[in-house]
Amino acid sequence: MKNPTRALALVALLALPLSSPAEAANATLYKNPHCSCCEEYAEYLRQNGFEVDVKETPDLEATTLDAGIPEKLLGCHITFIDDYAVVGHVSAEIVQKLLKEHQPLIGVAIPGMPAGVPGMDGPKEGPINVYAVSKYSEPTVYAVQ
Asked: Deepest of 3, 34, 64, 69, by most Cβ within 10 A of its Cβ?
């Protein structure tokens, strides 16, 4: 090249790492119309890089059971992210782990509304089990938060 400045610029450009911004995972959260903690959980997910669409449903239980979640693991909302169902107030870290691992699961669940988890007020009382839900076996502990 005749222009040394251009040559240096080209070398500098080629030395840059090839990267693209991480794409936010799309999530659809279904909730009972009168539950406010679900909105707080949706906001928590947004703050952790998810794009969340919140939809109210008068029959959350049917939506959750139809997704393949056992009755004993029902929570106050269900969020669909990629091919997974996330029931309850599961931490963004555990959701990211699930998405990264690509395990053959229906999803993960924290039953009920325990205090101190993302979106729920109050002090956390000990570790909270996050259960893996599979089509082929009983739920097992997937992670602890």
From this structure: 69
| pLDDT tens track for 52-64 | 999 999 999 999 9
Q: Quick: pLDDT tens for 17-39.
A: 333 334 679 999 999 988 888 99
Task: Please report the beta strands in 13-136, taking only residues with DSSP state E, as ranges in sequence order.
Answer: 26-31, 51-56, 77-81, 84-87, 107-109, 129-133
Do the bridges between strand 26-31 and strand 51-56 make them parallel or antiparallel, or are there none, so unpaired?
Answer: parallel
For the chain, give the number of residues.
Answer: 145
- Residue whose tokens read 């949706």: 42
Query: Which pTM was predicted?
Result: 0.81
d(CA 130, CA 125): 15
Which among 64, 105, 66 has a CA at the least distance from the CA of 87?
64
3-state secondary structure of 45: helix
Token pair in block for residue 145: 């938060």
